[in-house]
Amino acid sequence: MSLLELAGVSKRYDPAPAPQVLSDVSLSLGEGELAVVWGLRRCGRSTLLRVAAGIEPPSEGVVRFEGKDLSVHGERLLGDGIGFCQKMLRFTDGQTALDHAMVGLLSRWVSPARARKRSDEALERVEAEHCAGMRRHELSVAESVRVALARTLTLLPRIVVIDEPVKGVELSDRDGILRLLRKLADEGVTVLASTGESTGLSEADQGFALGGGQLRSAPAQQRENVVPLRAAGERRAAQM
């Protein structure tokens, strides 16, 4: 059984005749898969991810997580099995990165001591432990993304959904974010992400292209032209 399945999903917004954003979209993700949806601006990528996470209901079709229809169980599963990563760190959620990582647990009445321990572990998991005491304005965009992922991971999701994880990230930091998503998938966490750049398809188990409301497997030549991710040390060696 698939972990996440979209079957014949369409999405349109009122009032009529609003354009149809998604049309008969189907996809299936298993455990530990990294799937990336590529498409041009305003193609519906963000809508697709919100529908897949159960934040918005489809106009037609069905979204299932572990076989459960999200139109029925979505509110319970969001944050408990499905982790939707909000990249923005709001000032109301705390002063330091550790505060932001802890907020989801504290809102579920987890004790402060336990919340701190799990948040420390999550920050280390995303290689952002050095950010723990930093304030929101001191973080780079890449560090903010890592902290947001840590906040999501503290709730132990089976799938992480993240919209455009490298948008606004410095070019030198983008490989690190994409490698982190690959690492999470290799650890067994299914990842569904979106991107506006073909390089975001690198290392994905499944790559999709979204256009005109239709979702298709990304063309092979498009994925073959993506430069494989390499560790920073390997890149430096290649430049010497």
Straight-line distance between termini: 48 Å
What is the general shape? globular
Q: Determine and state the CATH class of the largest domain.
A: Alpha Beta
Main sheet characteristics:
6 strands, mixed
pLDDT < 50 stretches: 223-240
The number of helical elements comes to: 8
Q: Can you say what the CATH homologous superfamily of the largest domain is?
A: P-loop containing nucleotide triphosphate hydrolases
Beta-strand proportion: 15-25%
Strands of the biggest beta sheet: in what spatial order?
Answer: 6-7-8-3-9-10
What is the typical, i.e. mean, pLDDT?
86
**Roughly how much helix do the residues carry, as a percent range?**
25-40%
Second rung of CATH, namely the architecture of the largest domain: 3-Layer(aba) Sandwich
Give the total of beta strands: 10
Radius of gyration: 18 Å
Q: Which structural class best describes the helix and strand composition?
A: alpha/beta
Order of helices and strands: EEEHEEHEHHHEHEEEHH
**How many structural domains in the coordinates?**
2
CATH topology title of the largest domain: Rossmann fold
